[in-house]
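Technical note accompanying the year-one report. For the benefit of new consortium partners, we illustrate the data format agreed upon in the data management plan: each record pairs a sequence with a structure-token string. No post-processing was applied to the example shown here.
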Amino acid sequence: MSLVKEARTGDGGRHEALVVLLRTAVDGFDAVTPREIASRDRFLLELNRLVDPFDQDADPVHVTGSAIVVGSRGTVLHLHKRIGVWMQPGGHLEPGEAPWEAALRETWEETGLPVCHPEGGERLVHLDAHPAGAHFHLDLRYLLLSDDIDPAPPPARVSTFGGLHLLRPSSLPTKLSWTASTASSSTVFPDEVDSSAASKLEM
């Protein structure tokens, strides 16, 4: 059985399979920018150290999952009220959850958008290691696709996230390639939170 299939079946060894799968994905990620390279190195260092990299209560350093949500009208960002920046949907993993599953769940909870992974399965397009309040997040960003509908976050989320924004394809820098057909691990993404803002953040 492949690691991906084992990680999805819920059979014994799912946790171990997820850790191995994660390490393989990160090790094979085509880091381009200095920050991507440093983040990949930090990921691999921590994955060798952490007993449970998915549990936010087990260690201040842990894996999180987030989403680059694209559709025909653009890329979805939301405004985090506490730190005052626009960022992609994402957050901590729930017990037994894989990072790509957390990306789906968090996007639905924060935007109300029905989203899915591209044909062929989850696609890791970016990673970033950054401080987040008392935590340190090893964040995996997955490409998710959405239909041509308006975001509709639940009221509870509106109190935390002040609004939603569609980043139009025409407004993206020329180095960015966010479409479902061309996005890849070599795509260059902006850092969504600067160091001063990230230090205030706890997802």
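Partners are asked to follow this layout when depositing records. Confidence is low (pLDDT under 50) at residues 1-10, 159-163, 169-203.
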